[in-house]
Specification:
Elements lengths: L1 H25 L8 H18 L2 H19 L11 H49 L4 H16 L1 E8 L8 E2 L5 E5 L2 E4 L8 E7 L2 E10 L7 H20 L7
Antiparallel strand pairs: 1-6, 2-3, 3-4, 5-6
Main location: membrane
Organism: Streptomyces flavotricini
Membrane topology: Multi-pass membrane protein
């Protein structure tokens, strides 16, 4: 999570600095460059920041571009004041277009990230199915799923325990929620609890064991990742059931 915070901080810093640097680079040409063309160059800078940063960074970059366009590229120079009516219209359009385009750039980046994530999830599920279709042993399927869970959920470690239920551990449920059931009390978690978390493996209505997840401290992974983890565990259960291994209940 510290990596995400560092990225967000860098994006906000870029939102402030990049439009300023671009405006400064245009200063030697401001007498020959039309205000419209200067504004278009600044819009490109806003899009560049938004494509790499967050929605907030994109909006901040648009505001920064509008401010430095006023300060450096419109008369009177080096003052936050615009004398010409056309320049005022250009500045307003720069701000509006910068805000809109920056949000579209952020949305496109998030959509691309979603597509990549979905492709990775599909690859994990296909990999498990392929092992089963190839007649690999259920132990090989379980080991494959164990490795996938470590990467998918960002775990410190993961192990599989056959056919035993000892202790009362928080459980990753079929709906992606994380719950701890105690007599007369149910606790729902928004972050990983201390210690191990169990993900039960069931096939054909029979309980075969559980994956014991050893997470790093922090918030839970996205719900989609948790649901894929549950689906992977179900595939492991199907492989164990097909092989006719002994089960509990």
């Amino acid at each position: 999570m510290s990596g995400y915070r560092l990225h967000d901080t860098a994006a906000l810093l870029a939102a402030l600095v990049v439009p300023l640097l671009v405006a400064l680079a245009l200063v030697p040409f401001r007498t020959d460059l039309s205000a419209t063309n200067a504004a278009l160059v600044l819009v490109v800078a806003v899009v560049a920041v938004a494509a790499l940063g967050t929605r907030v960074a994109g909006a901040l970059a648009a505001l920064s571009a509008g401010a430095w366009f006023d300060f450096f590229l419109t008369e009177p120079y080096q003052r936050f004041l615009i004398a010409g009516r056309d320049d005022i219209g250009t500045a307003v359009l720069l701000l509006v277009v910068g805000l809109v385009v920056s949000q579209l750039a952020v949305r496109a980046r998030r959509l691309r990230r979603t597509v990549i994530t979905d492709a990775a999830h599909l690859s994990s599920l296909r990999g498990t199915a392929r092992l089963t279709e190839d007649g690999r042993s259920p132990e090989a399927v379980v080991e494959y799923v164990r490795r996938e869970l470590v990467g998918l959920l960002g775990l410190r470690g993961c192990r599989f325990e056959y056919g035993t239920l000892t202790g009362n551990l928080p459980r990753l449920q079929h709906d992606g929620g994380l719950w701890l059931h105690r007599p007369g009390r149910v606790t729902e978690y928004a972050g990983w609890p201390d210690g191990e978390t169990e993900l039960r493996v069931v096939g054909g209505g029979h309980y075969y064991g559980r994956f014991l997840l050893d997470p790093l401290p922090g918030p839970l992974p996205p719900e989609q990742d948790r649901l894929v983890a549950v689906a992977l565990a179900a595939q492991a259960g199907s492989a164990l059931d097909t092989a006719g291994l002994s089960h509990q209940g």
